[in-house]
Amino acid sequence: MLAPLTRAGRLGEGVVVPLVSVALALGSVAAVLAIIGADPTRVFQSMFGAAAGDLRGLATTVVKAMPRLLAALGIAIAIRANLWNIGAEGQIYVSATAATAVVMMMPDLPLLIVPIVAMAAGVAAGAVWGAIPGLLRAKRGISEVITSLMLVYVAIQLTRYMLEGPWAVPRATFPATEPFEQYARLPIIVPGTLLNAGALVAIAAVVAAWFIVDRTRFGLDLRAAGGNERAAATLGVPVSRVIIGTMALSGAFAGLAGAVEVLGIRGRLIDGFSPGFGFEAIAVALLGRLHPVGMVGAALLFGGLDAGGAGLQTSITGVSSAIVTVAAGLSVLYVLFGQGIVERAAARRRTRAALRDADRGQAADQLDERSGEADPSAGPGSSTPKGSPDAPSRSRMGGPSGAGEVSFIRSELEGSADP
Amino acid sequence: MTIDFFAALLVAAVSLAAPLLITALGELISETAGVLNISIEAMMLVGAFTGVVGASLTGNLWVAFLCAILGGLVVALLQGTASFHFRANQIVTGIVLNILALGATTFLLMSVLGSGVGKAVTLDRVAIPVLSEIPVVGRALFNQNIVAYLAFLLVPLVWWTLDRTAFGLQLRSVGEHPVAAASLGINVLVTRWVALLICGGLGGVGGGLLTLGGLGVFTPNITAGRGFIALAAVVFGRWRPVGTLVAVMLFSVADAFQIRAQALGIAVPYQLLVALPYIVTILALVMFVSKMRPPSALGSN
C-alpha cells in the first residue's frame, strides 16, 4: 500500500533493511538457542522441515500466516491514517465469537451459506470493536492506543463468558465448543492438508485492502487525514468520519482473521485460541513496510516459524514456539535501527552536498530543503513519524507541536547523537 | 455489603495499587519530559520476570528488586536508543518492545527456566504499630510491604521534584517547549534520557512488586495490560502526581472489587468482573479526558 518501491534510493530502506533485519533476528534467535544448549542448526533444520519440507508443511505455513496477514492488513490501513490499532487481538476474539454464534443458530444449509454468513458476522463484530476506539478518538480525543488495547481484555473475557456460560459443554476438560459440523466450515482446498478456503479469502483481502486505500475516495481521505489532519480538514475531508471508518475497517480485517481461524482452521471456538496473532500482526505490518507484498512475505515468515516451532515442541523439548514472537519483535526492532542508519547516512550525504554547494554560494537554498526531507509515503518508523510533528497529532497523548520546532529538535538530537 | 467487605476491599485495592502507582509515576516523569513511553508495559513485564528470577536464584529480595530495576532499564535503553538516536517513532518503538518483551519473557520462562522456576521469596507485610490497629482503614494503609509504602511516599516526592526543584523545571521545559529549553542551555537529549531511565527503573520495580509482592510466580503476560492502565492513569490524572494517584486508586478499587466480588460469589458472571478494570479505565477516559492538556511536545522526537 506504499508507493511502489521503484524509485532509486527507496529500495535500500524498503527491501534491504527488512531482509537484513530478518536475517539478524534469526541469527539472534540461533545465538540464544546455542546459549541455552540447543543445537541451532538442528533446530532450524527441524523447523524448516516442518514448515517447508513437504506439501503438508507448506500448507501449514500458509494456514498459520493467514490470520497474521489478515489482521496486519487492517493494522496497516490504520497506520496509513496515522492511527494505531493495537487491539486487533480483541477484534479477532469478538469476531470468532460472533461467527460461532451464527454457526450455533443456523441450520444445515448448502452452498457454504453458513460459513459465509458466519464470516460476515465476524467481520461486522470486528468492525464494531474497532470502531469504538475510533469513535472515542474522533469525538473525545482519547488515544486509540490505550482504548483498543483495553478492549482486547474485554473481548477475551467475553469469549470466555460465552464458552463457560451459554455454550458450556458438559464435562468438558477445557472451555471450547463442540467441533462444528462440516457444513459450517470453510472447505479444505488441498486434500490431506489444513489449507482451506480461508487462503482465497486472504488473497481477496490483500487486493481489497490495496484497492480501498489506493483506489477509492475513502482511501484518499484516510491517507490525507493520516498525512496532515489539519490540511485534510481544510480541504473538506470529514476527518471525524474518516477516523471512525478507518478504525472500523481495520477492525473488519482483524475480524476476518478471527472468523477464518475459527471457521477454517480450528473448526470450533476455543478459549485462548489466538496465541497473540493480533500483536504479531503489528510486527507483520511494520516489517512488511505496509506494502501488500511485504506483508504477505512477513506473514509467511512468521507463519513458517510458527509451523516449524509447532514441530519443535514435540521433537526438541524446551524450545517453545514463543520463539516466533521473539523473532517477530526482534526483526522489527532491527528494522527501526536499520532505518535510522539509512536515514542518517542520507542526511549526512545531503549535508555534505549542501556544504559543497555552500562553497558555490548556494548554501541557503540547500539547507532549507533539509527540513523538508520527509517523504510523504514513508512508513511510520521513518524520519517523519506519523505520530508526531509534521502530521500534527490528534491524540491527547501526542500534543500538537509546530513542524519548525520539531525539525529543530530533530537536528538537536541528531547533533548530540552524531557530533 | 458490610463494613467488613469495604475493609477487605480497601486492603486489596491498596495492595493492587502499589505496583500500578510506581509504574504510573515513572510514566508521568517520562511524559513530563515529552517522552511518550508505550513500552511501559514491557518495562513492567520484564521487571516482573527478572525480579522473580533474581529472587529464586538468590533468595534475597533486595537483589531481586535490583534485577527488576535492571530489567526495566534494559527496555528503557532500547526505547531511548531507537527513538532518540535512530529517530524511530516513539509509539512504534514502544509497541515493538512490548511484543519483544512478551515473546522473550514467555520464551525464557518456558525454555530456560522450564518448570524449574518455583515460587520465589516474596515481600512480607510490615504492620506499623498503633496505626495498623485503626478500624477499617488501618489494615489497608498501614499493613503493607515495604515497597508498597515506598510507592505511596513516591507521590509527594515526585510532586516536590516536578514542582519545586530545578530538575523538575528542566523536565517540564523539555516536555513543553524543547526549543526554548535548548536555547536556555538545557540539554534536551540528556534530560529526556534521564527521564526515560527513571521511568524504566520505576516500571521495573512496579513489575517486580507485581510478582514479588504477590504470589512470587511469573506467568506469561502476567502484566496483562497493566502498563497501559498506568499509561491511562497518567492521562486521567492530568499529568499530575496526585491526579495519577487518584486514577490509580480508582482502577485498583475496580480491580479489588472484582476479586472480592468473585470471592463472595456475587451473581454476576466472573468474566464481566475480570473485564471491569479495563472497562472502568475506558469509561474514566471517556468521562474526564476532554479537559486535559498534555505536555506540548509529548511524543515528538
Description:
With 419 residues, chain A is mainly α. In chain A, 70% of the residues lie in helices and 0% in strands. Chain A has one domain (19-335): ABC transporter involved in vitamin B12 uptake, BtuC. Chain A has helices at residues 10-35, 40-52, 55-80, 88-105, 113-140, 144-164, 198-215, 217-227, 229-234, 239-266, 277-287, 292-315, 322-359, 363-371, 403-417. In chain A, helix 3 packs parallel to helix 7, helix 3 (55-80) packs antiparallel against helix 10 (239-266) and helix 3 packs across helix 11. The longest helix of chain A is centred in the last third of the chain and has 38 residues, at 322-359. Chain A starts with 9 loop residues before the first helix and ends with a helix. Residues 1-9 and 369-419 of chain A have low confidence and may be disordered. Chain B is mainly α and 301 residues long. Chain B has one domain (13-290): ABC transporter involved in vitamin B12 uptake, BtuC, CATH 1.10.3470. Helix content of chain B is 73%, strand content 2%. Chain B has 12 helices and 2 strands. The model of chain B has no long low-confidence stretch (mean pLDDT 84). Classes of the chains: A mainly alpha (419), B mainly alpha (301).
Structural class by secondary-structure content of chain A: mainly alpha
What is the name of the CATH class of chain B?
Mainly Alpha
Major sheet summary line of chain A: none
Please work out how many helical segments of chain B DSSP would assign. 12
Number of helices of chain A: 15
**What is Rg of chain B?**
19 Å
- In order across it, which strands form the biggest sheet of chain B? 1-2
Under the CATH scheme, which architecture of chain A would be assigned? Orthogonal Bundle
CATH architecture title of chain B: Orthogonal Bundle
Low-confidence parts of chain B:
none
Q: What structural class results from the helix and strand content of chain B? A: mainly alpha
Beginning-to-end CA distance, first to last residue of chain B: 50 Å
Percent helix of chain A, as a range, is 55-70%
Q: Beta fraction of the residues of chain A?
A: under 5%
CATH topological fold name of chain A: ABC transporter involved in vitamin B12 uptake, BtuC
- Overall mean pLDDT of chain A stands at 77
Percent of sequence in beta strands of chain B: under 5%
Q: What general outline of chain A do the C-alpha atoms trace?
A: globular
Count the domains of chain B. Answer: 1
Q: How many individual β-strands of chain A?
A: 0
Summed over residues and divided by their number, the pLDDT of chain B gives a mean of 84
